[in-house]
Amino acid sequence: MKYQTILLFGAPGCGKGTQGKILGQIPGFFLLSCGDVFRGLDSRSKLGQIFLEYSSKGELVPDEFTVQLWQNHVDALVQAKRFSPDRDILVLDGIPRNLNQAKIMSDRLCVTRLFHLDCPDRAKLVERLKRRALRENRLDDANEATIRHRIEVYEAETVSVLGFYDKDLVAVIDGTRSPLEVARAVLARL
Hints:
Low-confidence stretches: none
CATH topology: Rossmann fold
Order of helices and strands: EHEHHHEHEHHEH
Structural class: alpha/beta
Number of strands: 5
Shape: globular
Number of helices: 8
Strand order of the largest sheet: 2-3-1-4-5
Distance between the termini: 22 Å
CATH architecture: 3-Layer(aba) Sandwich
CATH class: Alpha Beta
Helix content: 40-55%
Mean pLDDT: 91
CATH superfamily: P-loop containing nucleotide triphosphate hydrolases
């Protein structure tokens, strides 16, 4: 079964998580943040160690591991009756992260909209991520060199995902505006 899906897309710090939380509160929408799934891993487990190894350097976790972990998590949500694919629209934040993941997941996702939260001011992204590190105790946001590397990885590997989906599905939203203004723009294009 293909999941009806909305993708939240953009550089680290652009507001995907904030917008995902807003959409996830609307009946009929179910938010799944891949970063939250990874951060929820037991750091003493083999999977948790793999995640820490990559995230602490600002690198992407290998594709097969990422997609398998995502699918296992979705399956568990369906079994627990928290996510109903026949009723809910899946809102994804943080996956697919590169072209290979988009290809691997194409038989599982029916993407109906992709919101690209654009924030070309990289200094603003670094500032947002540093604030988030303090507020949320996020290891992946704690070091400026790691933050800048994550942005470089996004530009080198993730931006190409935009070209994988039909241009009519992509809505570019100015991610530098306030969260409320961004939410209004997203909701207007649903």
